[in-house]
Write a structure and sequence with these properties.
The structure is a homodimer. Chain A is of the alpha/beta class. Chain A has helices at about 20-25, 35-50, 65-80, 90-105, 120-130, 150-160, 210-215, 225-235, 245-260, 265-285, 315-325, 350-365, 375-380; strands at about 10, 60-65, 85-90, 105-110, 135-140, 140-145, 150, 165-170, 190, 205-210, 300-305, 325, 330, 340. Chain A has 13 helices and 14 strands. In chain A, the strands form 4 sheets. A 7-stranded mixed sheet of chain A has the order 2-10-9-8-5-3-4, with helices on both faces. Chain A has a 3-stranded antiparallel sheet with strand order 11-14-13, with helices on one face. In chain A, strands 1-12 form a two-stranded parallel sheet. The longest helix of chain A has 23 residues, at about 265-285. At the A-B interface, helix 1, helix 3, helix 4, helix 9 and strand 13 of A face helix 1, helix 3, helix 4, helix 9 and strand 13 of B.
Chain lengths: ~375, ~375
Amino acid sequence: MSNFDRDPILLTPGPLTTSLATKSAMLRDWGSWDSRFNAVTARVRERLTAIVNAEATHVCVPMQGSGTFSVEAAVNTIVPRDGHVLVLINGAYGRRMARLTEMMGRRLSTFETADDVPTTAADVARALDADASITHVGLIHCETSTGILNPLPEIAAAVATRGKSLIVDAMSSFGAIAIDAREVAFDALVAASGKCIEGPPGMGFVFVRRSVLERCAGNSTSLALDLYDQWAYMEKTTQWRYTPPTHVVVALDAALIQFEAQGGQPARLARYTANCETLVTGMGELGFRPFLDSHIQAPIIVTFHAPADSKYAFKEFYERVRDKGFILYPGKLTQLETFRVGCIGAIGPDEMRHAVNAVYDTLREMGIRQAAPAAVAAAIKAA
Amino acid sequence: MSNFDRDPILLTPGPLTTSLATKSAMLRDWGSWDSRFNAVTARVRERLTAIVNAEATHVCVPMQGSGTFSVEAAVNTIVPRDGHVLVLINGAYGRRMARLTEMMGRRLSTFETADDVPTTAADVARALDADASITHVGLIHCETSTGILNPLPEIAAAVATRGKSLIVDAMSSFGAIAIDAREVAFDALVAASGKCIEGPPGMGFVFVRRSVLERCAGNSTSLALDLYDQWAYMEKTTQWRYTPPTHVVVALDAALIQFEAQGGQPARLARYTANCETLVTGMGELGFRPFLDSHIQAPIIVTFHAPADSKYAFKEFYERVRDKGFILYPGKLTQLETFRVGCIGAIGPDEMRHAVNAVYDTLREMGIRQAAPAAVAAAIKAA
């Protein structure tokens, strides 16, 4: 890659590879007070809202910072000071939502399953029925720690039936997995610019039910992360409350235009699904085994078991694959040695196939003959 | 401007006009986990720290979001839960620091002077001597609401003598006005990417005294805005804790390279001073009067009184000047009608002169014969 000063393909779940059209939009400077920039902001908010069919019920509130800033803003704005949040955990992002909820002083309960076990609607129903003081439920739609997809529609129904409020971290699913606000009840759903819309990182956004947000003044203990204040100011002035990341906003606008031209969410899901299948099939042929069963695997990011071969070391493996032009992602499991490969970004099955080939070449260079994880390798040896 | 699809010159205090070299750096995608990107982050932190000669005493902690996010992070991280912050106010940014301090639940006192009156070291000494429970002092170095410069070195000495901790919002002064950490005692000093270093907006950074930061674990009530956690993670891993705005970071790196090549802070101050003088002289010839006395005017942004002429209306004036290629900035004073013109960004005296000419043409188009404010116009009429 470095020989010809070419960008690597990012097989990471955001930042990811963006198109040249998206990056080129950043070659302009915009006045953040100017009506032309504010028209871009308005257009971006409208386009984002349309993706989840939430025009009639929710408002889109953009927020500076990474996706986590928007998750924290959602919890701090939506949950009253005396609220009680149940956070559903099966990975690092669930744990993060729990931690930020606790740090801001809201009452917290958690329900945790193993990293490879989706939370079910029955789990949520049981937890809510056991503690009537719970007011809000926090859910990670696709846990990027592993790539597991939690059943949002079913969980949303269980929460709504019990009159509770749902906050969804849809960071890595929004734009790729179908979410329809007319059918799935949520009070807040959070995502970010640098994920499946394929913009650059630097801002998040929260779809908040308008009737809920209107009652949220004074909840937040943070000025910068107060979604109500951000929304009220934007409604009044059309401007962002504090300096927006102007270049990121216009690049997200460009990315949304391409998103729509390419066929919107269904087309994006189809491309990512093809990416994921190409990856899993190709890696499978090399002996790699995915961590998750295929029926709970979102086509966003795939966790693979590390090879059992003693010649394997992630750092060398990573660097050799990178030098061939592909950036892999480390694992996030504490108990098992794994690595991750993202399927999202401005890439298609061709790039995934090239990546698999680069992994193949790397295994040969490292003298790794067995890419299967320990258990599989043992079974093969025994056979 | 729109005829030839050319960018306007931003006479705004951030976002501002950036160079093509800076914007071009955003034409690449970077993996936020990759060592090559982390080397950029490390280089940016080092270069920023060198600008205030703080290598021996302070660490530079970058933070996602606008400058306000970094101000809030500084207060929330540096001030213990039972701390008591005295915020010095002579404009909107001082009021903002007071508000965020109060919202996060820290005890707040304020000392306020008029928008055109700098806070003095004697004011601060008196306030601190009157209330021994104050632990921290918050100061805005250059108040962008008007462009007034507060005497940082003298105030810092008054605070240090009394054994208190100083938090400085140096958003619009850092990189242009000399600040030397070896001579000026501060525990935290905050600035952002899209100001006098002339990068794109999207991240801030805080120089925190290392010996202070080491004791700040557990202070913050916000996870996203916890500078201690951000710093500790970065020290351990070389990475940002949560997704960084990669394109903004590499553009800031490019801007810093240009900053140094152009002669660093002294050269930047000289250019902005020439910009400011060209502006004030040229606008003065048209009859415009600055709001501030020249000895308290920082060469960052100039507030002008609106013309007394009844044909003047800011919206039309702004749009006509914009259509000639220059983006002005509205006033931020509630009592007086004013507008502001920024002197910072990748622009020189030529651009300032062109802007003055565009203002002249606009006055003629609008039939405004008297650009002086009401008091001056009355005096001329009486003479």
